[in-house]
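LOG
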Amino acid sequence: MNTVSDKKQKKIELVEKLSPTLKKATGVVLVNYTGLSVALQQDLKAKLKEVNSDIVVVKNTLIKRAMDSANLKNEAINEDVLSGQTALVVSNGDSISAIQVLGKFAKDNNIPQFKVGFVDGNFYQKEGLTKISTLPSKETLYAQVVGSLMSPMYGLVGTLNGNLQKLVYILDQKSKS
């Protein structure tokens, strides 16, 4: 039989387990998951797992305690943020990838909605997280940088190749006359 002290002890254990997870995370994003069906929740979990992240549903009071214990407290995390159905998205790898997965998922399903988050030690409001979610992936950015660096070289090769072709054409015409 569950007594009040058993429930309280389970809550304490949950906070004690969640706090170190939040401390070592590269990113922690709070989202409103109202309306997220079980099927969509499982789909989102699978997509987040691919980028070394996880979604955790915990009561708002326990989120507040765990964040206080993990020194992630910010003046912007108040009663307004910790109201309604709140889930934590915890990243242990590339925190930007997790936000991009959330952004794409939210765009496709209109759920979840960003609240606030900590990304690589920096605090972001909903607007900042939304902007981050629309950034291209790291691989795309790397490709764009390499393309930008290679573009002048391709232009030079094309110019030199064109002049070489003109020389060959002139020599061919001279040899025929």
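LOG (cont.) second protein
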Amino acid sequence: MTAASVSDNTGGIHLLSQIATASPSVTKAWADAGYRTKAIDHGVHLGIDVEVVRKDPGIKGFEVIPRRWVVERTFGWLAHHRRLARDYATHPRRSEAVIHIAMIDLISRRLTHGSTPTGATPDRRPPVRPRRARQ
């Protein structure tokens, strides 16, 4: 996350540098149309192919933009977690930690074929006590 005063290019250059350091095996990145030549050139310098995903100018109205839906879908998954539905965190590292927890929850539920609890699901209901017969 960056402040609103940070340009896409500056943020992109910083992010690409972090990715190249932390994960040297990354060779491809997709970027929004806001990223211009500086971030793309920096990616080439680091050995990362940065592809800008753009909307087809000939199509009017709504269009699913390739690779963009992956980001939107992920935001939808994250919004299922109460702490991420609104921006409650005062520090970006706290938000980042909650995002990690949310993604761990998502992956663990997929691995165990569980479902995301919404209200009283069978695994979260209180145990039912058997009734005693009246005498």
